[in-house]
Amino acid sequence: MAHKRVGGGLSTAQQVAKFLGVSVLAGVVLAGIALPAAGALGLSAKGTASGFADLPGELKAPPLSQASKILDANGGLIATVYSRDRTVVPITQMSPNILNAIVAIEDSRYYQHGALDLKGILRALSHNGSGGSTQGASTLTQQYVKNVFVEEAGDDPTKVAQATQQTVGRKIKEMKYAIQVEKELGKQKILENYLNITFFGEQAYGIEAASQRYFSKHAKDLSLTEAALLAGMVQSPSRYDPVNDEQEALKRRNTVLARMAQLKDITEAQAAAEEKKPLGLKISSPKNGCITAVNGSGFFCDYVRETFLQNAAFGKTKEDRAKLWNTGGLTIKTTLDPNAQAGVLQGISKHVNKSDKVAAAVALVEPGTGKIVAMGQSRPYGFGKDETQINYSVNANMGGGQGFQNGSTFKPITAAAALEAGYKPAQSEASPNKMVYPDVTTCSGATLHSTVETGNEDPSEKGPYMMPEALKKSINTYFLQLESQVGLCPIVNMASKLGLVRADGKPMNQIQSLTLGTNEVSPLNVAAAYAAFANRGTYCTPVAVQSVTTNTGKSLSVPKSICSQAMSQTTADTINTMLKGVVDDGTGAAANLDDGRDTAGKTGTTDDRWAAWFAGYTPNMAAAVWMGDPRHVQQMKQVTIGGKYYDKVYGADGPAPIWKDAVAASLQNKPVMTFVTVPLNLPATNQPQDPNNPNNPTDGKHRGKHGGGPGGVTVMGATGGLIAGSTTGGTGGGTTGGTTGTSGGTSGVPNPFPTLLPSGGGGPATP
Predict the structure, then answer these.
(1) Backbone dihedral region for residue 713 (phi beyond 0: left; psi -120 to 50: alpha; all else: beta)
(2) Which of 237, 576, 244, 561 is nearest to 412 (CA)?
(3) pLDDT value of position 360
(4) CA 216/CA 587 separation, integer angstroms
């Protein structure tokens, strides 16, 4: 019975049949000239074309989305990523079996007709116009055109619906473009394009991906039965899916074989013999995305993806960049050194288990180039227990969390700002064991005042000290006094020049405990900042991509590291000389490399053991290691990490050994280099400075000595809170190292910094 529209009259299918019938009889389709206007049929304008000749004459096929390969610096495969699993291959790399099978079942007169099969249309008109079940008349060329529209729609469901809607207008456009495509490409190229664009189910687009998915072989090696199965799936990939319905797929495959025999592509005997064979599937699971990355580089892989989606080098708009990534077909060579990456994983696994309540993250950066050499963490990339998708090494906008307080690893930045302001390594401060936070001046000129007391953890740590020894022993009160004299603004500006920003993207908190590392930052940014010291004061922005090549061999521009002089070479050389002492015989001795390389660095441990750090460098490698609980629940006191019990975790005994293992691996076969050191010109006695003349020592004697000890603990006062204030009074304290500003404190400005959220940004993602 014919399908009628509501309200009577011919159904849409019958109107199309009538329309096409008139066109065919007039011979206009064959001639490729104008068809009658759709309006002449009484159809609504919606979804139709005004006239065949008015349609655009050129089909602009979008590039087919394909898999992209992410490679390490040596050309090894890190991961394969794609929005659509497709590998485009030329027709010469397709088995003749699949060419014959697809033509037989989809368009048996393909080589006899033009873009439109007039005989097929008349047959369909005769059948469909009589009111029986509908028959299709689309040629392979028309199907290819339709698939182009679908490919262009991407994953947008609205656009996909528009590309596949059953309207007269869409059918007319399909016909017009089919005529154009047939003229321009010819039969062989159309067949090649068709087999590369068509969806075969199970995430496989194109014949090569389908061959790999169902039979784990290349398209050029498909047997007769294998080709028949795949050709039969095109009509309905879900209905004839051999993975989910073997019997339905078997029947469809045999239908294709019978049709091939009918067309004399194979003999009846061949068809009968092949129909008795099993499907012979050899399924390969889809392998897509950073979850498949090797050598623990899933987080680095994700960072590469974020680089593509956010960097203007890959497109002016977000949509342009997403289109490039999703289109794929790219070979992306990155900066990742597989030896260094292996060293990171080995170093972490020796000291931290993935099931520990405490985690660790490591980032390595090459001085002078900004290349990210390695990136890893103790909790693997994944969705299971003790796994996470949050990259602890990077800022929130690049797939990381809100960062971590970096403790005393911030002190060298204060020292650099002081040196740039004219202070000398011999700058001496009284550095009592306990003291009230001194007044400091912000960039806006405001003076912050506090009544909260803070100090050094060890009662023996009391001055006076000069800068080198204060760095070696990580003396908090020394750097608070130095910060007070230098001012917050030069220190904040130095941090900015070194690329050290808050991981959550907010401005750096200008507070009295700034120099103690109370802003949350990421290991990658700390490593890049320290790389500037190694590079004699020149900071280079971190980069992860070295080159990008399309599937046609075209090279794309990639983001370049931007280098700028953050401080004078003399300042950097002075910092290197002092931080070399930290590793030689200071708190960082556990990080000293065994091969005699010059090594410099700084430990860091935050109040109440919420985090521990070691950041350090050689002249040709910089790295930062963070250790802590990203959820900010587990303090590192009386805790077992990696099977080892710690009464208290310090930067010297937790992160430093990891740093040593990771950096040693990254420097294999790399030249041994030395720092440019400078004389520190320290006086024989350590005398406190006249605050009105920092270069003029006053009375006092040197007390304290160089040397080891755990050191590096940032103690933020009796209440432990972040310090904020004003000219009018006190601060609000907190009990969790500056992250829980709900307890303690005197009258004055309340603590503006709420409880630290999980390092994934406080969302539901696995920490």
Answers:
(1) beta
(2) 576
(3) 96
(4) 56
- Whole-number Å distance between alpha carbons of 766 and 386: 8
Select from 612, 709, 609 the least CA-distant residue to 659: 612
Which residues 6+ apart lie within 8 Å of 619 measured at CB? 367, 534, 598, 673, 674, 675
- Rounded Cα distance between 493 and 671, Å, is 34
Residue 20 in contact with residue 125, Cβ under 8 Å?
A: yes
Burial class (CB in 10 A: 0-12, 13-18, 19+), 157: exposed
Rg of the chain on CA atoms, in Å: 35
Distances (CA, A) of 418 to 410, 414, 429, 578: 13, 6, 13, 14
Structure tokens at 714: 């940032």
Q: Which DSSP letter does residue 292 get? A: G
- Please state the pTM of the whole predicted model: 0.75
Give 563-566 contacts, CB < 8 A, sequence gap 24+: 563/368, 563/370, 563/538, 563/539, 564/497, 564/538, 564/539, 565/537, 565/538, 565/539, 566/416, 566/494, 566/497, 566/498, 566/532, 566/537, 566/538, 566/539
Element (H, E) at 549: strand 545-549
Res 671: pLDDT: 92
Would strands 748-749 and 730-731 be described as parallel, antiparallel, or unpaired? parallel
Structure token pair of residue 590? 């556990």
Split the chain (767 residues) into runs of 10 and give each run's mean pLDDT: 38 43 41 36 36 53 86 96 90 98 96 83 53 58 90 76 74 84 91 95 93 97 98 95 95 97 97 96 87 94 95 92 91 96 94 95 98 97 90 95 94 98 97 96 95 92 95 95 97 98 95 96 98 98 97 93 98 97 78 85 89 95 96 91 92 90 91 94 66 39 33 39 35 31 32 29 32
Q: Can you read off the two tokens belonging to residue 324?
A: 């490039």
**Whole-angstrom Cα distance, residue 549 to residue 311?**
17
